[in-house]
Design a protein that fits this description.
This protein is 78% helix and 0% strand. With 495 residues, the protein is an all-alpha fold. The protein has 4 domains: 80 residues, no CATH class; 80 residues, Tetratricopeptide repeat domain (Serine Threonine Protein Phosphatase 5, Tetratricopeptide repeat), CATH 1.25.40.10; 80 residues, no CATH class; 107 residues. It is globular and about 95 Å long. The relative contact order is 0.05.
Length: 495
């Protein structure tokens, strides 16, 4: 476990962090300093962690102990590097100094630092940190017999507790709604809709039914945005996404507090504009997404870089595929290979599998069915991936279409019945999906072309109707089965 932790920690560091660490370590290690730097360099150069490679180096004496020490040293170096890089770090730095001054009896000096720390906490709505500052401040005032002032500080703490309670309400409800949405994907029924509605009701059961801080407002917007996206209300989704992005950009401390949240907000805003047909606005947001790290001074960590990379790549892929610009989508995939390897360990499976699905879709449209099969199998073979039911449903259906195109007759019967059973069990089965699966089951051996063409025409007609339905239209967000049916109809007719 330690060896993996050390490897992951070193490989998460930026070039600036690595340079700083070498300077830091040379000042804080007495004797054998080069050994630890050499060990650091060897691990840094490894593409895959290899314990045996480390043991073969002459400077290594006790590898287990040296890895443990190096891990702690790297963390200390990173702490020093980032000492003033965020509001929280600045407050913690003040708190350390306040503790030292307190124990030396320099109460007045400590109180001056408390005022500075409190101002930072207030400006950034860091309630927990402000409470810690407040607690130490009460001690300092009491030591100076300023009990009246100490009492006022306690009153402040009570007000902070109310703000925290309000914030915790919205954070809890919104986080639970995110979890439900991640599990379900998008609403396929009134039952799904009611499941998300319960979180809106919980919001109103608190002491207040409105947020009293900007951070709480951020979560409230996230709660309502999740619901309206879930039920497919594009107009409300766009309005709320615009408000969310404006909230971040009007309050830069929120970008520091939740950088990934801001990046996700830009991604959602692009998609909302795209779905509303505001293509120029969508393109502008894409450029904002790709430039946000520079504009807002967002740390260029691989964690944030990975999120920006996957979001912007998925946007470009989705847009090109919708426009049937297959050459451009292929170029995006080819150009992303290097960055994909770099960021693979810094992105969650939901985002990664969205990308894999898009690659599979591109390959399918390009008639490279074997490559399409490889990418759908990468997702389906991960038995531990049990969220994003909407994505998994789409992947299963695309996988089935791939087997149909490859004429894997022996596989199709099992796959089709398995997919049908899975969708029914998960309460994810749409009529359009059932009809598609039935068609494949009935015609994958292609013995009766006349009947096959007749059934394809019927399927094509039904799909045009399904596209317009509030719930039945949701599967088309992932793959346009009607377009496939039209293409297949033309292909069979020409045979």
């Amino acid at each position: 476990m330690v060896k993996e932790a050390l490897y992951d920690l070193i490989h998460s560091m930026t070039m600036s962090e690595k340079r700083y660490f070498k300077i830091y370590s040379s000042k804080h290690i007495i004797g054998a300093k080069n050994d630890y730097i050499e060990l650091f360099d060897v691990i840094s150069k490894q593409t895959v962690f290899n314990d045996d490679e480390l043991k073969n180096n002459t400077f290594v004496k006790n590898l287990s102990a040296e890895k443990n020490y190096l891990y702690r040293l790297v963390l200390k170096g990173l702490n020093a590097f980032h000492d003033d890089s965020s509001a929280k770090n600045k407050i913690y730095s003040y708190l350390k100094s306040m503790e030292i001054l307190f124990h030396k009896g320099l109460y007045g000096q400590a109180l001056k630092l408390a005022n500075k720390a409190r101002k930072i906490a207030q400006d950034n709505e860091l309630f927990v940190q402000e409470l810690v500052v407040n607690e130490l401040e009460v001690e300092l005032m009491s030591k100076q017999f300023e009990y009246h002032q100490a009492s006022k500080s306690i009153d402040v703490a009570e007000e902070l507790a109310k703000k925290m309670s309000n914030f915790n309400l919205y954070q809890k409800v919104t986080t639970d709604s995110y979890a439900a949405r991640l599990e379900i994907g998008t609403s396929r029924s009134e039952e799904d809709t009611r499941r998300l509605q319960q979180f809106l009701r919980i919001e109103n059961e608190g002491e207040t039914n409105y947020p009293v801080t900007k951070r709480a407002e951020m979560y409230q917007l996230g709660l309502h945005l999740t619901y309206y996206y879930f039920v497919g209300d594009e107009k409300k989704t766009l309005t709320l996404t615009e408000k969310m992005t404006q909230l971040y950009e009007s309050n830069p401390f929120l970008i520091e507090y939740s950088t990934i949240g801001y990046v996700s907000s830009l991604y959602n805003l692009h998609n909302a504009y795209q779905n509303s047909g505001r293509l120029t606005d969508a393109d502008n947001v894409l450029h904002r997404l790709e430039d946000c790290k520079l504009k807002y001074g967002i740390p260029t960590s691989d964690n944030i870089g990975a999120r920006v990379f996957f979001y912007s790549t998925n946007i470009r892929l989705t847009n090109y595929l919708k426009q049937n610009r297959i050459q451009e989508s292929g170029e995006v995939i080819a150009n992303s290979e290097k960055e994909l390897k770099r960021f693979l360990g810094h992105i969650g499976k939901p985002q990664l599998y969205e990308y894999y699905f898009l690659v599979a879709k591109h390959s399918f449209i390009s008639l490279d069915f074997r490559r399409a099969l490889r990418f759908t199998n990468l997702i389906l073979n991960d038995l531990k991936f049990k969220v994003r039911a909407d994505l998994l449903s789409a992947v299963r259906l695309l996988n089935l279409l791939i087997h149909y195109e490859l004429r894997n007759d022996f596989t199709i019967d099992y796959m089709a019945k398995n997919t049908l059973s899975y969708l029914k069990k998960k309460h994810r089965l749409f009529q359009v999906e059932e009809e598609l699966i039935r068609f494949i089951l009935n015609h994958h051996k292609a013995e009766d072309f006349v009947q096959q063409i007749a059934d394809l025409k019927q399927l094509n007609t039904e799909m045009r109707r399904y596209k317009q339905d509030q719930f039945e239209g949701r599967p088309f967000d992932y793959f346009d089965f009607q377009e496939w049916a039209t293409f297949k109809l033309d292909s069979i007719s020409q045979e």
